[in-house]
Amino acid sequence: MLALRDVSVRLIDPETGVAVNALDRVFMEVEKGEAVVLVGESGAGKTTLLSVAAGLIRVTAGSVFVGGRELTWGDRGQDRWLRAKVGVAFQFPERSFFATTVREEVGLTASLLGWEPERVTAAVERALSAVGLSFNLLDRSPFTLSGGEKRRVALAAALAHEPELLLLDEPEVGMDLRGQKHVRELIQRLKNEGKALLVATHDVDAAMGWADRCVVLKKGRVADTLALTDPWPEGAGARLAPYSWDYTLLRRIYREAHARGWTLPDPHRARDRFLAALTARAKNPAAPGEAEDFPKPMEGPQ
Ligand SMILES: Nc1ncnc2c1ncn2[C@@H]1O[C@H](COP(=O)(O)OP(=O)(O)OP(=O)(O)O)[C@@H](O)[C@H]1O
Ligand SMILES: [Mg+2]
Asked: Is 22 in the pocket of ligand 1 (CB under 6 A)?
């Protein structure tokens, strides 16, 4: 669905004139029905990569393919086609807001694509429900909403026209815990519907439940790519540790529990089950564990 072939993007800071290789010879792909999480420190190039995939930044070298079609710059026919194919939720939603009401903002792309008004209305309502936003907000200005509400509006706007490829830039930022859970479930659902998802985040722990693959960017380069299979590939935990807040803590608890002979699910593949099993164990230490989850020696705690 999305393929980057040897993509480089050189950006020049307009004030200082300093050039940065925001992306440096990047190869990557996202298939239909696949969710890929993009991690990396600030400035690693995540937003740049998403913007390239959305056809918003021109590449300095290399090729970008969406749905098998190579993107070319300045082709208006292609821009329209791409708009239908791709949904983008930006890192700073208010920078992309355009309309005077939530209704208009969420339905903007569908309207631009020439959908009938009734179809746009239905799409807007469906998208609002999907992100858990009340219809009471429909006539509010998107600019006056709370941070978390703005995020949800941006997400709804990305989804409403039912694109096949979704590009989400730190979608969970600024949301309360319930909102974050909602986003995780939404991503899972979109993936099950066969969409291709590329999601930049600093919360790799939260991505564990839905991500099939993780791409690590470092200074514009793909520094690592991991398939997040169950169980994890050898050494994956340690490779992701710099991007994981609770990796170390959960791993330590897991190791302690393991040393006591407690059989618990892997905390990263199944965090909720891990915590539930741990609580049950703490209440009743003599209960039998989840035998099928007992790690084999090679996959054991590190
Ligand atoms: N418009 C621009 N002009 C010049 N340089 C830019 C521009 N936008 C981004 N950069 C530079 O490109 C590099 C990559 O930035 P990018 O925004 O893609 O990082 P990021 O991984 O999304 O970071 P964050 O986690 O902070 O969002 C950085 O060095 C940044 O300073
Ligand atoms: Mg960014």
From this structure: yes
Q: Which residue's C-alpha comes closest to atom 27 of ligand 1?
A: 42
Same domain, yes or no: 73 and 94: yes
Q: Is 125 found in the same domain as 40?
A: yes
Same domain for 115 and 22? yes
CA of 242 to the centre of ligand 1 (A): 20
C-alpha of residue 34 to centroid of ligand 1, in Å: 25
Give the position, in ligand 1's atom list, of the atom nearest the Cα of 44. Answer: 21
Please state, in angstroms and rounded to a whole number, the distance separating the CA atoms of residues 241 and 256. 18
φ, ψ of residue 86 to 5 degrees: the values are -120, 140
Task: Determine the Cα–Cα distance for residues 182 and 132; give it in Å rounded to an integer.
Answer: 8
Mean pLDDT of 202-212: 82
Confidence (pTM): 0.84
Is 208 in the same domain as 99? yes
Q: Is 278 in the same domain as 184?
A: no
Cis peptide before 233 (omega within 30 of 0): no
How far apart, in Å, are the Cα atoms of 223 and each of 26, 29, 155, 241, 293? 10, 15, 28, 14, 31
More confident residue, 26 or 250: 26
Task: Report whether residue 39 contacts ligand 1, using a CB cutoff of 6 Å.
Answer: no
Are 263 and 294 within 8 A, CB to CB?
yes
140-165 pLDDT, tens digit per residue, is 999 999 988 999 999 999 999 999 99
- State which amino acid sits at residue 169: D
Residue 209 has pLDDT above 90, yes or no: no
Q: Look at residue 11 and tell me if it is in a domain.
A: yes
Q: Can you give the pLDDT at residue 173?
A: 86
What is the band of 240 on the pLDDT scale with cuts at 50, 70, 90?
Answer: confident
| 115-144 burial: b if 16+ Cβ within 10 Å, else e | beeeebeebbbebbebbbbeeebbebebee
302 part of a folded domain: no
